[in-house]
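Running co-folding for zinc ion.
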Amino acid sequence: MYVILLGAPGAGKGTQADILSTEMHLPHIAPGDLFRRALEEKTELGLLAKKYMEEGKLVPNEITSRMILERINQPACTFGCLFDGFPRTLEQAEVLDKALVDQGKNIDKAIYIYVPDEELVKRLSGRWICQSCQTPYHLISSPPKVPGKCDKCGGKLYQRPDDREETVRERLKVFFSQTMPLLERYRKQDKLIEINGNLGIQEVAKEILSVLKGSK
Ligand code: AP5
Ligand code: MG
Ligand code: ZN
């Protein structure tokens, strides 16, 4: 099963992808996480992505698509995967469709998690993520058991530099102008599922799981 998670910054894509990948036994593919890891390791890709991420802009399609195609060609993705933050432009959606069709596969569902803007800002300003495994936490809605430490791997938690208010505003702008048009694309293909993301983390997960398990 190939599933896309769509949603504005802070909608809960990463949070839900963590839960769904365990429940559905699907690998989680997130370009944002891959870029942050590359930056941590100071690779050429990481340094290149840095300036776009810091400004809240998209990394060029060609670079992002190449990185994602490499992932979906790995054996772990033979039976499916969960895309979190990809595709984000119509061009990326076309590249992904073509790559899957070439392998006799298809996107099964595109899940759009919607959340009001003021809630997005609250979520991003209280978010802390794990430096090693990228798991997101929130000071109020999902705090770690030990302050500053990841429950899963013990890694150090930090605040993303792109969660600064002006960068968040730019990321939202980019989402509405470049990513929103994808909703129409998946609606036309009868693959779009809209989920109210303004509920508790477990409630949102339950909604998504019931849709995915019903459509297997
Ligand atoms: P990326 O890392 O994908 O950032 P994003 O899309 O802006 O999304 P976020 O990770 O900020 O939010 P999320 O929806 O994952 O929310 P989360 O679960 O953490 O991308 C970063 C950058 O990389 C981009 O700006 C771009 O430069 C580059 N990039 C990435 N993909 C690209 C692409 N395809 N093409 C080009 N460039 C690309 O939750 C947020 C917070 O809320 C957390 O604290 C969480 O604990 C909390 N929370 C979650 N759910 C709930 C809930 N139901 N109730 C209460 N709190 C909740
Ligand atoms: Mg995320
Ligand atoms: Zn961790």
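Result summary
The chain has one domain: 2-117+165-215.
Residues 87 and 94 are 9 Å apart (CA to CA).
Job closed.
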